[in-house]
Amino acid sequence: MKGVLYSKALIASKYWEELSLENMNTAQWEAICDGCGRCCLHKFVDSESVPEDGEVTSIDSQQGEVFYTNITCYQLNEKTCACKSYEKRKELVPDCVSLNKHNLKDINFMPPSCSYRRMHKGEGLASWHPLLNKGKKTKMHELGITVRNKVISEDKVNLDDFEDYIVTWPLSEID
C-alpha cells in the first residue's frame, strides 16, 4: 500500500457501501486497502501439504496450509506500514502479489482482516478501517491491527530460519 490519501470527499461518499470491488475506480480501490501491512509479511506453504507435483503458486493457499511469519518485505516501512516504493514495487520485488479485480477469487492467502478479502466475502469494512475513522490509522495501531512494532525486515534475518519467525497474530480478526 502506498500512502493512501483518504480525501474528505472520498470518505463522505461512502462508496464502499454501494459499489462492489469490481466496480470501483482506481482511487476507490486503493482506499479500500486499510494499510495494515499484513500482506507484506512473508508467508510459507507447509511442504507436507503441497500437492505431489510440487507446484505452489504465491497466490493459491488451497495448495497447502499457509503459515505467516513476522518477517516483512524489505520495502515495507515498519512505522507507517506502507511500501517505501509502492509505484515500483513489482520491479523491485517481482514476487510481490498485487491484488486486483482479476485475482480477487484467489486471495485466500491474505489474512482474514484484509479489507479486500472482507469486502469480497460481503462482510464490509471493519470498524477500525481508516475510511470509517476520518482517514486515520490511529484506531488500527491501538488495536494492534497493523504490523507496527511486531515485525522484522527480511534483510535482517536468514530466511532459511523462517520457522523461527512463524506467528499466528495475522490470523486474528478484530471487529
TrEMBL record:
PANTHER family: UPF0260 PROTEIN YCGN
Signal sequence extent: none
Pfam families named among the record's database cross-references: CxxCxxCC
Record-given protein name: YcgN family cysteine cluster protein
Domain of life: Bacteria
Organism encoding this protein: Glaciecola siphonariae
